[in-house]
Design a protein that fits this description.
This protein is α+β, with helices and mostly antiparallel strands and 181 residues long. It is 22% helix and 33% strand. The protein has a single domain, classed as Inorganic pyrophosphatase (Inorganic Pyrophosphatase, Alpha-Beta Complex), CATH 3.90.80.10.
């Protein structure tokens, strides 16, 4: 398995709006405005066809030069894993860089991310839910290899959940409403 994936962006870097993918609407909707006086330090979204330990698609942060927009799909390279816990348990976040941004081309591993950015990310996720009365514990940073393992586990969870089986059946021409005989 490679280190390159696609991320679907829900929240652009610098936003206080918390957007979330809504599978029932098949669209991104505004979930809430952050109560804390902080902004997302990176573009933020998820890796499609994954299920994290919290039951949601696996979260991903994409370090970008300029913010993108909700619904943007970015081809990314996995760099590291950021782990935290909230009221729902483990909440892993895969840290990525865009494949096609020369400003990030030098970043290959966690140690290549500047310490100020890592500190900003850690601080953001340690406090952004405080005004809502939700406690968060930051477990810290882990290398790319662990991020890849978490992605593989999340892909297996997705396949086991039945969502992947339904899509596979549709791709094979089953379950698409056609009557071949």
């Amino acid at each position: 398995m490679g280190e390159n994936f696609h991320c679907l962006i829900e929240i652009p870097k610098g936003s206080r709006n918390k957007y979330e993918w809504d599978p029932e609407l098949n669209a991104i909707k505004l979930d809430r405005f952050l109560f804390a006086s902080v902004v997302y330090p990176t573009d933020y979204g998820f890796i499609p066809e994954t299920v994290g330990e919290d039951g949601d698609p696996l979260d991903a942060m994409v370090c970008v030069t300029e913010p993108t927009f909700p619904g943007c799909v970015i081809p990314v390279k996995v760099i590291a894993l950021f782990r935290m816990r909230d009221d729902k348990g483990v909440d892993d976040k895969v840290v990525c860089i865009p494949e096609h941004d020369p400003n990030w081309a030098h970043v290959e591993k966690l140690e290549d991310l500047g310490e100020p950015l890592r500190d900003e990310i850690s601080h953001f996720f340690s406090i952004y839910k405080q005004p809502e009365g939700i406690a968060v514990k930051v477990d810290g940073w882990f290398p790319r290899e662990q991020a890849i393992e978490v992605i593989q586990e999340a892909q297996a969870r997705y396949r086991d959940s039945g969502d992947g089986a339904q899509e596979d059946a549709e791709d094979a021409g089953e379950g698409d409403g056609s009557d071949d005989g």
